[in-house]
Write a structure and sequence with these properties.
Shape: globular
Number of domains: 1
Structural class: alpha+beta
CATH topology: outer membrane lipoprotein receptor (LolB), chain A
Helix content: 10-25%
Distance between the termini: 57 Å
CATH superfamily: Lipoprotein localisation LolA/LolB/LppX
Largest sheet: 14 strands, antiparallel
Radius of gyration: 21 Å
CATH class: Mainly Beta
Length: 454
């Protein structure tokens, strides 16, 4: 049975009373801790007692010498070798450091699924001004009513001293990813036997929350402008999705529009939210699973379980490497584990249970957030019967040219059907571009009509 760390115990007392608890919110008296026992992000600076998790020493602060802007991000740890391998034969020996979903994946695919575990490297880092703004936010930021928004924060992590599930999830949603840019979020959903086709998806993003000097009041409640166009296959090419992701979805719900080239018209798309199927995902991914979690939190009750040491996908430069073909990635049941890297890290554990009277295909989800970046790295998804249904992994890297820690590849395994969907394949396309400041005028329904094509 897992144990909760002493650090977590010291802040978890009384969390069950909910978002409005007196201890949550601004902590001006704790700001000095961000340069002492805590990192500038609010994670524990020290390593663990066993020495298997090192102290944070700043993360990656300079790219590898051979890296040039626009390159695929080279592995900054090229000489690292696996310390050991977890397999279907021995995974129970490591059960205390594995999620429910990981153990279920081993049980379903005992002969083909494995995890190579490497030296733990706390590589997460962010720009200096993000550290500065996170410190300021620690003195001012607070949750909006019912946890459905953030007030009095800007640019950085809003809650460097998280004390409830809402604060942690907002740290994930507001993690710095640059002001904006373009990425290929190409997606593959193989059959149970491993046959597949490729959906090439191009996305543009603009996040004014991260723009220097901009306040929450000035962004008019629009957290993220999002444009998505399917480039192939031909039957889907030209389908476009436009989203205005709102910061406080109780004040204004997410706004979405779609353009269908066959109809040559723009239509409102109120169903691009919650558990409606994600683009071209064969029903294997819901809209709120993009970036592991996004959107409104109002259909679930959220609970902070604690902090644990677990084997998680980390420094996944092997999965990000240039030139890897789709055939090398795709296997029946799961992605090729030889391309993946796992490390022991501390994670926050958050549980979401469906509220009475609310509808969602998942009755429960458990989220695991990397303590250094607040990136959700694992999810366990449960169906309406309370049975484990899906297991999700975010294989993440430090995009050291920004820098930020973010997923390079997401995989969502349906453990009941034997199928999965994975997205983020950019190994043979242009890599993500960051800090390319697009304009809000490019993300209007009128602009969508102009950009639409047959």
């Amino acid at each position: 049975m897992r144990t909760i760390t002493k650090y977590t115990l010291s802040i978890c007392i009384g969390l069950a009373i909910g978002v409005g608890q007196a201890v949550a919110g601004p902590k001006p008296d704790q700001i000095n801790r961000l340069s002492e026992d805590l990192t500038p992000m609010g994670s524990e600076r020290a390593g663990n007692a066993e020495g298997t998790i090192p102290a944070w020493a700043g993360g990656i602060t300079t790219p590898p010498a051979a890296y040039s802007p626009g390159d695929h991000h080279q592995n900054p740890f090229p000489d690292d070798k696996p310390l050991f391998r977890i397999t279907g034969a021995n995974y129970q020996d490591y059960g205390d450091q594995l999620s429910v979903g990981q153990k279920a994946t081993f049980a379903k695919y005992p002969d083909s699924y494995f995890m190579d575990v490497y030296q733990s490297r706390r590589s997460a880092s962010f720009p200096e001004h993000i550290y500065e703004m996170t410190s300021k936010n620690g003195s001012t930021a607070k949750l909006a009513e019912n946890g459905e928004g953030v007030l009095e924060a800007a640019e950085g992590f809003p809650f460097p001293f998280p004390e409830n599930a809402y604060e942690l999830m907002w740290n994930h949603k507001l993690k710095y990813k640059g002001i904006g840019g373009v990425r290929y979020n190409t997606q593959i959903a193989p059959t149970a036997g491993g046959k597949y086709s490729v959906t090439v998806i191009r996305e543009e993003l603009l996040g004014l929350y991260y723009k220097r000097g901009v306040t929450i009041e000035e962004i008019d409640n629009i957290l993220l402008y999002f444009f998505q166009e399917v480039e192939s296959p031909a039957r889907l090419a030209g389908n476009i999705l436009l989203v205005h992701e709102t910061l406080n979805q109780q004040v204004l719900p997410r706004q979405a529009w779609i353009y269908n080239p066959g109809q040559r018209r723009v239509r409102r798309a109120p169903n691009v939210a919650y558990d409606n199927p994600g683009t071209a995902s064969d029903g294997l991914r819901t809209n709120d699973m993009t970036d592991m979690f996004n959107g409104a939190m109002d259909r679930f009750d959220w609970k902070l379980v604690g902090k644990e040491e677990m084997y998680i996908p980390y420094n996944s430069y092997g999965a990000h490497a240039e030139g890897i073909s789709n055939d090398e990635f795709i296997q029946p049941g799961h992605l090729n584990p030889a391309l993946m890297r796992y490390e022991l890290h501390r994670v926050w554990v958050v549980e979401a249970n469906l509220k009475d009277g609310m509808r969602h295909i998942n009755a429960k989800r458990t989220y695991y957030l990397d303590e250094d970046s607040y990136q959700i790295v694992l999810i366990d998804h449960y169906d309406g019967r309370g049975q484990l249904w899906r297991a999700s992994e975010a294989h993440s890297i430090n995009y050291y040219d920004v820098p930020t820690t973010w997923s390079t590849l997401e995989a969502h395994y349906d453990l009941q059907s034997g199928r999965y969907v994975a997205q983020g394949f950019d190994n043979t396309t242009a890599v993500n571009t960051f800090n390319v400041e697009l304009q809000p005028a490019q993300f209007t329904p009128q602009a969508l009509r102009t950009r639409g094509r047959r």
